[in-house]
Design goal:
By secondary structure, chain A is of the alpha/beta class. Chain A has one domain: P-loop containing nucleotide triphosphate hydrolases (Rossmann fold). Chain A is built from seven helices and ten strands. Chain A has helices spanning about 90-95, 120-130, 145-155, 160-175, 190-200, 220-235, 245-250; strands at about 30-40, 65-75, 80-85, 105-110, 110-115, 130-135, 205-210, 240-245, 255-260, 265. A six-stranded mixed β-sheet of chain A has the order 6-7-8-3-9-10. The model of chain A is unreliable at about 10-15 and about 50-55 (pLDDT under 50). Chain B is α+β, with helices and mostly antiparallel strands. Chain B folds into two domains: about 1-55 and about 285-430, no CATH class; about 70-270, no CATH class. Chain B has 15 helices and ten strands. The two termini of chain B are about 30 Å apart. The chains are: A alpha/beta, B alpha+beta. The interface between A and B is medium-sized, with 33 and 26 residues. Chain B: This is Lipoprotein-releasing system permease protein.
Amino acid sequence: MSDPLDGDVRFENEGTLEPLPVVRERTVVMRAVGLTKIYAAVASRGGSASKGSTNQGSARPALELFRGLDLKVHAGEMIAIVGESGAGKSSLLHLLAALDTPTAGEVWCGEARLSLFTPKQAAEFRNRDVGYVWQFHYLLPEFSALENAAMPLLARGMRRAEALEKAQFWLTEVGLGDRAEHRSGELSGGEQQRVSLARALVTEPRLLLADEPTGDLDGKTAEAVFSLIQRLHEAHGLTSVLVTHNLEFAERCDRVLKLREGRLVDGRAGDGRV
Amino acid sequence: MRFEFFIAARYLRAKRRQAVVGVITGISVIGVAAGVASLIIALAITNGMRRDLQERLVGSTSHVDLMRVAGDGIRDWRPLLARLRGVPHVVAAAPGLYGQVLISKGARSGGGLVKGVIPADEKTVGDLLQSVVQGSAAALEPVAVAAAPCGSGTSARNDCGGGVSREIPPIVIGQDMAESLGAKVGDGVLVTSPQGELTPLGLVPKYERFQVAGIFKSGFYQYDSSYAFLRLADAQRLFSEPDLISVISFKVDDLYHADRVGRAIEDAAGKGFQTTNWMEQNRELFRALKLEQVVTFIVLALIVCVAALNILIALTMMVMEKTRDIAVLMSFGVSGTQVRRIFLMQGLLISVIGTVLGLILGYGLSWLGGHYRFIRLDAAVYSIDYLPFAPRVWDAVIVAAVSLGVSLIATIYPSGSAAKVLPAEALRYE
């Protein structure tokens, strides 16, 4: 039996004469413990937002996205995080990718505690351990698809020829081996997102984080991209956390977690549907 | 660094989303090039003028002068002269007797400095006697004695300065002095020495009549308006100082080591002697030239500063335009330091391109100016009929360093602000 929030898979050795069950747990790739994220109030000129005055102009009140959120991500699983817009799904991914820091709580990646990272270590972590796919492709328009895909490797100082060779492999994996020299403006939306996926995977990261990777695509293209992610996940034994609004895609993941009122809850109903 | 250069170079080449950024970048490159070229040309001109002035000045006068500390003149100077000619790096030496006089012709008169010389020797240490434009300096040669260096050690020839003509002795004066006196070659002038003779009537100034044998023009007002040459023996007679000289002038093999050779000459001459060299004698002039050069450099460096301001604006706008890309770069592990370097390199690339273009332009124009002398000057005013250009490699190094340094300072703010981009914040509202 497995706990949908914990995700630990237990196999009991039934059918043997052994009196005690043998429990095997999958490796935890990432763990978030007691995560809290509160965006501080932003005061307008000459006033304090916390006073709750209606004359705050551009003031932004304090915003609590989640409080005491826990999460375990196991090696090889594909997790879908769903929730309403503004629930904090993207912010959660930012915290997992060390792109942002939590107000409280900790994120662990293996034995590394992200809050202890220096800016340089955080950059190295993003470069080596995390592949990030955004809702929009965010390819750099001045560079070819191949250069875009190779960018994380070039950034870490890998030889250009080697980096381009690896990037070419991943472009082929996402079905764009013959579009390597095309710039992002010469690619369709789906192709751009596939290059973005190749860029995220070129470093062979421990964790793929995708923030609504199909959110900016039409239905057919979205299906193609999601299927691609699924295929690569299985073929390369990836560990993936996807934020999505598409419940159909979410259902196809190993686990579905819903971000509700600042916490993650099991996103599947009793019949297994999301 | 390769990665940062790769990104910076591509950003610089790429078409801009905002055309104005590209325009400002282009203006920055042109601005740096214009500033650097202006600096190179201006420095080449000031160097050329300085070099020309120095060559003529140093050519006109001796490099080192030896005199008595007490100012009492050098007696028994022939063996000393012979000995000092043997000092290492001394090329030539000549005796001379200086004296302040009043030179008059009719109602006109003016103060002057006469130098009693032996022309054959004097010509080896200074060019003034070779700059005679009217008449000739040949009349200064001692009568009935072949022109040969004095004090060469042969006592048989120790008649230097002796055996002069009993007719009106010759004098060679500067052109400006000749004009102020209204004197021409062949005219007689009266030279009055303040070192007078004691007579029953008291101290009477000593005066003697000379005939203008030649008029020289060095191009230096100081010399042309107050210098005059006499035969050494005539000067000694005028100043009532028989067989005494006041100075031994030297030419050395390396004029920039005149001070060092001067000290060696002092040591060789013994106690009671001191030397001055051309650098000390013209210190104020060269200091003024140096100051002019520094001021020119500072004024023109302002052009580079304005260009650097353009770099600052271009980079700031580029950082604003690229905020999203910076955030994306950071999301896959590009560090803040790397982002800073990208924009720093971009600023430096603009500066390097502008500096190289400026150096090529500046040196090209300076070479053309020096080679074809296409800028003509009024020789009567500037004593040279073309604008001299003398570009120096060292100037290029300094100008390039200043240009790159100022540009580097201009990149600090935009590259710093690029490094501070928070990826989550920058992409949250995209």
